[in-house]
């Protein structure tokens, strides 16, 4: 009892931040550098300030992390319609994937043919028909922007589909605007959603931080749009 009481008293202290003695501290504090930790004796002497986490190299995009345009506000779909162009070619493969993604994410409201007659659209009125009125001529950039940010009663889908998938959905929606639901035989020459550029960049640019898939631009004036 005397020994137990002594250990208990020695374990108490006035400094709430003092962790006391640690048993096998290497089990808690690894020898390898951890980017979000900064411990005494665990820092990178080659990095500025001894930090373990470094700012990415200038003008680079991390693997799997595409740049994203920020110059167009969420409420400026019309601006997006005039400035953003689809960088993907309107091939059968891209349109077929766009159709699959459309049926998965969009048809519950917009219907399989884009007539606004999906199960949700039938219950909540006001879902647009792609083949009628101004909706039949919406540019691809406008469609892409609305997919990302939503509009009206439509919620944003930017977290559900990546940039390439959004462009493929927008590409297929332009097919629906014409009343075309089939994708076989489509070529860049047979539809106006085609683009002269390649499908996707092979890697990060060595001269500028730009990505045609997400609509980024090397024009600093446009990237700082309010």
How would you characterize this protein structure?
- The protein has helices at residues 2-11, 77-83, 92-105, 107-110, 119-123, 140-149, 163-177, 220-223.
- The protein has 226 residues and is an all-alpha fold.
- Helix 2 (77-83) crosses helix 6, helix 3 packs across helix 7 and helix 6 crosses helix 7.
- It is elongated.
List its traits:
226 residues; mainly alpha; 8 helices; elongated
Draw up the topology in text.
Blueprint (H helix, E strand, L loop, with lengths): L1 H10 L65 H7 L8 H14 L1 H4 L8 H5 L16 H10 L13 H15 L42 H4 L3
Helix pairs in contact: 2-6, 3-7, 6-7
Secondary structure: number of strands = 0
- Main β sheet profile: none
**Radius of gyration in whole Å, from Cα?**
27 Å
Summarize model confidence as the mean pLDDT. 75
Unreliable spans are 188-218
Beta-strand residue fraction? under 5%
Count of helical regions: 8
The string of secondary-structure elements, in order, is: HHHHHHHH
Helix content: 25-40%
Q: Structural class given helices, strands, pairing?
A: mainly alpha
Shape assignment: elongated
